[in-house]
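Task 17 of the worksheet. Students: predict the tertiary structure of the chain below and write it out as structure tokens. Keep your answer in the requested format; marks are given for formatting as well as content.
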Amino acid sequence: MYTIEELSMMTGLTTRTLRNYLKMDILRGDKTEGIWHFSDQQVEAFVTHPSVRPSIQTKHHAIVYDFLAEGQKPQNEACILLDLHLEKAQAEEVSRFFCEEANRSENIRFSFSYTQGAARMILKGPELRIREIMDAYYRR
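Model answer:
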């Protein structure tokens, strides 16, 4: 289960935009005690929706474009793009791992997408924290 904040981080869409999609019934979830929760199936249905997918792709590409366009940075930064061939269940597990790690840190941008056996993760942030996250991923 994902919260609206986690879904926002994964897709790059704001929580306000996600709430608008909820109102339009394009995004479906369960609200418990005032907190939205989304299952893997609900997230997949949302991110593959034809009217949503282009917006998410644009947001994902923007992470890399912004990193390249920023020029000189005040601190060391890294931007990592991982394309992994995974089964759906494995991709969901990997997505949860990166989402949880990104939530533990400030200044980390994370996006995730999955299409027909291919998972793509993008991480951007302080170099040392990105390195720690990647080390933890490969140690699992």
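Marker's comment: The CA atoms of residues 66 and 124 lie 10 Å apart. The mean pLDDT is 91.
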